[in-house]
Amino acid sequence: MSRKAVVQPKNKLRIAIIGSGNIGTDLLIKILRSPSLECGAFIGRNLSSVGMVKALSLGVTVSADGINYIVQNPDCCELIFDATSAKSHLEHAPVFKKLNKRVIDLTPAKIGLMSVPSVNLEDSLAEFNVNMVTCGGQASIPVAYAIGQSQTDVDYIEVVSSIASRSAGPATRQNLDEYIKTTEEGLREFSGATRTKAILNLNPAEPCIDMQATIFAKVNNPNIPKLVEILEPLVENVRKYVPGYEIIFGPIVENDRIVVIARVRGLGDYLPAYAGNLDIINCAAIAMAEEYASLAHSKGSTGE
Amino acid sequence: MMERNCTISISDPTLRDGNHAVGHQLDVEQIAAYCRAADAAGVSIVEVGHGNGLGASSLLVGEAKTPDSIALEVARKNLTKSKLGIHVIPGFATIERDLKPALGMGVDVVRVAAHCSEADICERHISFSRGQGVEVWGCLMMSHMISPVFLLEQARKMESYGAEGVVFMDSSGHFLPEDVRKRVELLVSELSIAVGFHAHNNLGLAIANSIAAAEAGATLLDGCARGFGAGAGNTQLEVLVAVLERLGYRTGIDLYKILDAGDLAEQILMQKIPSITSVSVVSGTAGVFSGFMRPVSRIAKEFDVDPRDLFFELGRCKIVAGQEDMILEVAKELALQAAKGGK
Comparing C-alpha atoms, which of B51, B42, B54 is closest to residue B19? Predict the structure, then answer.
């Protein structure tokens, strides 16, 4: 541990990652690159898992003790990324609260405020537990929000996400129902639509398809110029933390529905660039954590 | 072979796959009347719902005229001997929102479906349904896209989740009889559960492929009245029953009554009898989901592209069922290429 203290620059926010699957491992790589975050612990349940081996090779402190590691070493972090499962997060959340740790929840457990940095960063900063909705939610909610802001009488919004089969691990496959429910709730909350629906497709094509989200909406008298006006700056905002985010189709009105297609190419950190679904939720989570870090830093300096 | 297997169960998705052909607009009167006719004929399973199954009414695929709950309620009232079946695709239908209420309405048979290589997304829906005491089948859609050995691996997963049978679906109408025979033989020899087959008629082979499946040991076949189904339609049920009878298989179906059901279906369900149009031949050859026929026809007109080019390009992109949104993207690309003057 003392070796780390020498290596790590000061003023970085110490974080821990719990969950050593695809999401957790990709987060780790992004955090090691962050100017304002440092990893205090990478926690899973099996030291020989692929993610753990990767973390060890990067010289990060690892543990296979799950949440007990944080309970026993509360000083390992100020903020925790929970990349386990919805079920596990429900068990973890009260423990983190007791330990007074900030939490960025990447599972669909949805205990805390749903957070999409391009839309509600300010509100999220006030919360101790924020939920990153879902990958499809991060990709589609900026568009759904723009529809809500620009159209009157938004009756219905539907989001169809397609992801490469290779980017969907066992947890994703087991949790399709939770994904759907949480994405639908996020869409409703951010767009104000009366009804919402989320659909997820896995496509096994090789070479792998890029993650895409298609947003359909039924509104009274669609106003496309106004939608474009609100959507464009939002997309630029998303691109600040996910450079591979782009609108590749629309907005247009086709068959009495507004259609917009967003494509997400990832940074290709742990998984290849096609896995934009993992990248966008992680980039959003890192954007949140970096805001906390700058906030903590400014508070810290005034306090001293 | 005939000694081993001389009884074939018929599952009839006229009121589910047929919904693709009419933009998911089947109404309660149509559902009630056809259920009565199929029930009277002795069909084993009558499948009812939106073309993509439970919870699939959407802007993506098409909004259903009749909500799932109403369709199931009406079907339940009008079936006495036939079992009431539903098609359930995880990613569209969830257990809480869709499956629980459907089982509450008295569904007898749940067929949980996934793209052929993605069986593991069915685990929770299959095991939940088994736990509720209903008959559960796994369905592997677009099965021409993987090898027989890969198909077996996926079918084994469904067996391990608790499926009592597995149906592999030629959702594009792409198979030749030999393709079907190979797959059924492998599945029958390696699985300890029943094997079924669901055909589409894009290449005029739905009956031949279904018979190949039966002769190779499949014990459940799908057939629709007049072939009423997505694209070029499914296996024509009345013909299938007559051919199976000639071959000496028992289906439990009364020939005259299933012919009556076919006549009724023609009168009251369909705007036109499914036929193999030029575009259907391309769709089957390209190996694209049959349910894409209506949206491809519409979007090809809107973007002024040849629907045949659009189908071949969708096939090249390996688009799967449920990716109707990609039709727009691909049509736009084709239109752009055409505008640039080269292809």
Answer: B51
Structural domains of chain B, with CATH:
9-268 (3.20.20.70), 278-339 (1.10.8.60)
Helix, strand, coil percentages (3-state) for chain B, rounded to 5, are 50, 15, 35
Instruction: Catalogue all structural domains in chain A, each as residue range(s) with its CATH number.
Output: 12-132+281-303 (3.40.50.720), 135-275 (3.30.360.10)
Is the Cβ pair B325, A160 closer than 8 Å? yes
Pair type for strands A211-219 and A257-264: antiparallel
Res. A4: pLDDT tops 60 = no
Residue B341: what pLDDT? 79
User: Which ipTM was obtained for this model?
Assistant: 0.95
Q: Where are the beta strands (DSSP E) in A118-239?
A: 129-131, 154-164, 195-203, 211-219
Which residues of chain A from 170 to 229 reach within 8 Å of chain B, CB to CB? 170, 173-174, 176-177, 180-181, 197, 199-205, 212, 214, 216, 218
Q: Coil, strand, or helix at residue A151?
A: coil
pLDDT value at position A156?
A: 97
A95 pLDDT above the threshold of 70: yes
Bridge partners of B236, per DSSP, are B224
Name residues whose C-beta falls within 8 Å of residue B318's C-beta, 6 or more positions apart in sequence. Answer: A203, A204, A205, B145
The single-letter DSSP state of residue B94 is: -
Cα–Cα nearest to A123, from A275, A291, A302 = A291
Tell whether B164 lies on the interface with A, counting CB pairs under 8 A: no
Is A135 designated active site?
yes
B177-195 residue pLDDT tens:
999 999 999 999 999 999 9
Percent of chain A with pLDDT over 90: 85
Rounded distance, CA B145 to CA B321, Å? 12
Is the per-residue pLDDT at B216 higher than 80?
Answer: yes
